[in-house]
Write a structure and sequence with these properties.
Blueprint: H1 2-9, E1 14-17, H2 22-34, E2 38-42, E3 55-58, H3 61-76, E4 82-87, H4 92-105, E5 111-117, H5 122-135, E6 141-144, H6 147-159, E7 166-171, H7 174-181, E8 187-190, H8 193-208, E9 215-218, E10 222-225, H9 229-233
Parallel strand pairs: 1-2, 2-3, 3-9, 4-5, 4-6, 6-7, 7-8
Antiparallel strand pairs: 8-10
Helix pairs in contact: 3-4, 5-6
Length: 247
Amino acid sequence: MGMLQDVISQKVDAIIISTHDENAAAPLLKRAVNQGIVVTIVNSDIPNFPTPVHAVVGYSQRKGTYKIGQYALELAKGKPLNVGVIEGQPGYHSTERCGGFLDAIKGSNFKVVTSLDGKWNVEGGNAAGMDALQAHPEIELIFAANDYMIMGAAMAAKALGRDNLILLGNDGDTAGLEAIYEGRVTATVDTTPFVMGQVALQVVLDIFNESFNGGFVETPTTIVHKDNVIQALQQPEKLYPKPSKKY
């Protein structure tokens, strides 16, 4: 909220914002729009933002995590699995991301034994993973709503000697991709966040040029795993931050 107030007072021409709490951001974004500032929401697919904005750029979050739920079922090959879910802090993003995964495994022989808040960060994912695995040692698969949380859960799994878990994330962060390459994480939904940022800026420019009337612009998702992660890491121009080494 403080950052939003700062840029509005600076009378910028446009704001590109990613928010996990659309209701908290809405009053300030409404003020920005009323002042003539172009507002674009990025990394989202919220169909009806609480206040009118110029554009929303992002992937279909529920569809993306539905894909990784299907991937989990393929990995299991019909075997029943006990599942732990690590949510983000409550809000649209967590609901959609977890919802897509849960939709995919609904009706299968997967059993969700616990679902905890990982607070969107590595530390929270580590704490949630540790709590989940200690309370439910029968867990065989963990899905987390973003890569930071699944990397934290991977740390918990390592500390507990659980090297047999399926660990699934979401986002396609560089660190998450490298964790897959190193075998610490199983797979993620690659939302190509760097490319998404490029698209968001182009949308803003198109609004200024009056070549785009506003609305939702969908960006692609792919499932990245050990067999194709090297392809993503070998395209550093599409990643930020850059990989820690050349692949």
